[in-house]
Design brief:
By secondary structure, the protein is of the alpha/beta class. The chain has 17 helices and ten strands. The protein folds into three domains: 3-138, no CATH class; 144-264, NAD(P)-binding Rossmann-like Domain (Rossmann fold); 271-460, no CATH class. The strands form three sheets. Strands 3-2-1-4-5-6 form a six-stranded mixed sheet, sandwiched between helices. It has a two-stranded antiparallel ribbon with strand order 7-8. Strands 9-10 form a two-stranded parallel ribbon. The protein is flat and about 80 Å long.
Length: 464
């Protein structure tokens, strides 16, 4: 199953279905509601061209085209219904509300017909495509490359349970890696790919899409360390539940034939919010760069006059999914301030220039990072990016820190607002708690709150 081809097929048939739906509706609208002669004119052509594009954009914002291989019929029905309801209401208020009608019931007829045409013409090809995907998965002709973590009776049990199911549920086992010793029974069924120490390399080389960790969820410390190591990779993580997990309702079951597993994910934002967040990043950054251009010039002059050296300070940081990028700041320290190696700054750090102290308190040194946001390296709100030098020290104490690299780092963050700049590793760990809370509760409303608090800090100059 080629994911790009499947996505293209969905988009194409959505576009075709929307074009037909609008054409039929336009004819009904003109001939039955407005009671005029139907003619194919420029208005008709513009509708056939633009309306389907609007539908496709709405479905994309809804997340319909994301990871289409994981779609199933009930989810497809739900997405199509909700998307069609929202789109129909939107089109009604944008294009149909000013129609000339003799009685208001005609509005209901128009709205109902548009919904019915759009829903049926979109749902039918979608169900055909998705049914084909589901059938191949059930027949075990397609699936997701799965890695089993654990070399114990638990690992053997979960492997046997999944393989003995009457229908495939999408797990194409590539092999297993052991946590302690290698289980001979499991190695007779699956390829032994290595030890836990090699997991990052194995995930990359084998192009793993799902990981099943064969440990009880009550083994919190071991689970936390393993999950922290692999959560940066673009894989789905599943663990075994205990009775508390089952009773508390944390076990996710999307398939009645599926094994009992908990789906571990940090992606708490709906797809439409993720899209809107990125759009908001781009729009606000562009506006900010244009409006702040005079301030940039003034700050550049002040930095240049404060001490010899460049205006901007570039430093390598770790971004989303462990990628490196150069963060852009106004220089606030004297030249060669780290000639003896990486050092964190402190409140009365003699390396900071006089203008640098003011810029740090008011966060003005961070303003050039709007360019990092435009380049897609950062977001307006997200965990602050750190250097690999300090990340290596932090994960020795708290491996969970790696979860923060799952998302784009931000110009400002919950930790930055609550705690400010960190002066040592312990303060980095304290700040991390706020950023982990942000990660587990991400939403557009929370982003807006953090940005408002940051603006207050800028005007008050109370940053640490």
């Amino acid at each position: 199953m080629n994911p790009r081809l499947l996505t293209f097929a969905l988009v194409f048939f959505d576009w075709i279905g929307s074009s037909i739906a609008w054409s039929v509706f336009y004819y009904f609208r003109k001939s039955k509601i407005e009671e005029t002669d139907f003619t194919i004119n420029s208005t008709f052509y513009w509708g056939v061209l633009l309306i389907p594009i609007m539908w496709v954009l709405l479905f994309a914002l809804q997340g319909t085209y994301q990871d289409v291989r994981r779609l199933y019929r009930l989810k497809t029905l739900s997405l199509t219904f909700m998307g069609t309801v929202l789109g129909t209401i939107g089109i009604f208020f944008l294009f149909l509300l000013d129609d000339e009608i003799s009685e208001y019931q005609q509005y209901y007829s128009a709205l109902g017909l548009l919904f019915l045409l759009q829903f049926l013409l979109i749902l039918t090809p979608r169900l055909i495509i998705v049914s084909g995907i589901v059938r191949k998965i059930h027949q075990r002709k397609a699936g997701f490359k799965t890695l089993l973590v654990g070399g114990s009776d638990k690992a053997v049990d979960i492997y046997n349970e999944i393989n003995n199911l009457p229908k495939g549920i999408g797990h194409d086992f590539v092999g297993f890696i052991n946590i302690n010793g290698v289980d001979k029974q499991l190695s007779s069924k699956l390829n032994h790919l290595g030890h836990l120490d090699d997991i990052e390399t194995i995930l990359k080389e084998q192009k793993i899409e799902e990981v099943i960790i064969a440990l009880e969820s009550v083994e919190h410390d071991r689970l936390k360390k393993i999950i922290s190591r692999i959560e940066c990779a673009n894989v789905r993580i599943k663990i075994l539940p205990d009775m508390y997990d089952i009773l508390s309702g944390t076990v996710e079951m999307s398939n009645i034939f599926g094994a009992l597993l908990i789906n571990v994910t940090t992606d708490v934002m709906p797809v439409w919010q993720v899209t809107m967040k990125r759009l908001m990043d781009i729009v606000i950054s562009l506006i900010s760069i244009i409006l702040l251009l005079p301030l940039y010039i003034v700050l550049a002059i002040l930095v240049k006059l404060s001490s010899p050296g460049p205006i901007f300070f570039l430093q390598e940081r770790i971004g989303r999914n462990g990628t490196t990028f150069n963060i852009i700041k106004f220089r606030t320290m004297y030249l060669d301030s780290e000639k003896d190696g990486p050092q964190l700054s402190s409140t009365d750090d003699p390396r900071i220039t006089k203008i640098g102290k003011f810029m740090r308190k008011s966060r003005l040194d961070e303003f050039p990072q709007f360019f990092n946001v435009l380049f897609g390296q950062m977001s307006l709100v997200g965990p602050r990016p750190e250097r690999q030098f300090y990340i290596d020290q932090i994960i020795e104490i708290e491996p969970q820190f790696l979860e923060l690299t799952k998302v784009r780092p931000g110009i400002t963050s919950w930790g930055q607002v609550k705690y400010g700049y960190a002066e040592n590793i312990q303060q980095m760990l304290d700040r991390m708690k706020f950023d982990l809370l942000y990660l587990k509760n991400r939403s557009l409303s929370l982003d807006i709150k953090i940005m408002l608090y940051t603006i207050l800090i800028i005007f008050k100059g109370t940053g640490k």
